[in-house]
Amino acid sequence: MANDDSPERARSAARPAREPLSRDHIIDAAIASVDERGLPALTMRSLGQRLGVEAMSLYRYVNGREDLLEGMVGRLVQELRVDPRGDEHFPTDGWQAYLQSLAVGARRLAHAHPSLFPLIATRHPSAPWLRPPLRSLEVVEDFLVALISRGLSDESAVAAYRAFSSFLLGHLLLEVATLGASTAPVEETLDEGDAEVPDNDLPLSDFPQTQRLQPLLEADHADAEFELALEHLLDRLDALVSQ
């Protein structure tokens, strides 16, 4: 009979208990791994080693690397949500403060996870007509509710969504690139057949403002938006040069 004071028992007692595997735990570990070592170093094998398990154990919770990437992006996008009703950080009657809070949160997220932020621009959106980085139905619904409840018309709210998302994406991708992040698309084929890629036919009934404004969100005004953005930029530069 083994002695309760055996060295093996003492070593086992000294080791911290390993957190049970779960999808959330695996996604958290994957995000931490990419933050530390970059996206190319992330493999199911290396993630298993980090968690102290065999790589095959991970497949009970994620359907391969593609599904893992989707889970990581989904987690990051959820961090972009700002309560459209307002809170102690911004007033409930000003759309400018809401956009400022959302932009600051997105920039904070990009700086915290520079190697992961470009994935938000390249992974599958919840619907094909949503724009990164505000690319989930929850975030877009919050955005539209916040602006329309603060007095913007439907058309103005959708125009703000387009302009604001373009500003965030362009500016923040440049910022994370200066921090060393790669903004090139992932070259290898990652779809392993069973990945939980977001369904483009997700029911919109839980997102009434987004559903109601879908025709406006789907409309293609890329040429006009580019010309207008360029015009505003030239006006700003002219004012700067004239000082």
3D structure, described in words:
This protein has 243 residues and is mainly α. It folds into 2 domains: 16-62, Arc Repressor Mutant, subunit A (Orthogonal Bundle), CATH 1.10.10; 77-242, Tetracycline Repressor, domain 2. The protein is 58% helix and 0% strand. It has helices spanning 7-14, 23-37, 44-51, 55-58, 65-78, 95-112, 117-122, 137-149, 154-178, 208-212, 214-218, 222-242. Residues 10-17 and 187-200 have low confidence and may be disordered.
Topology (SSEs and partners):
Elements: H1 7-14, H2 23-37, H3 44-51, H4 55-58, H5 65-78, H6 95-112, H7 117-122, H8 137-149, H9 154-178, H10 208-212, H11 214-218, H12 222-242
Helix pairs in contact: 2-5, 6-9, 8-9
Keywords:
243 residues, mainly alpha, Arc Repressor Mutant, subunit A, Tetracycline Repressor, domain 2, 2 domains, 58% helix, globular
Q: What oligomeric state do these chains adopt? A: single chain
Beta-strand level of the residues, as a percent range?
under 5%
Q: Class of the largest domain, according to the CATH hierarchy?
A: Mainly Alpha
The CATH architecture designation of the largest domain is Orthogonal Bundle
The end-to-end span amounts to 88 Å
Molecular shape: globular
Radius of gyration: 22 Å
Q: Determine the mean pLDDT.
A: 82
Structural class: mainly alpha
User: What count of domains describes the coordinates?
Assistant: 2
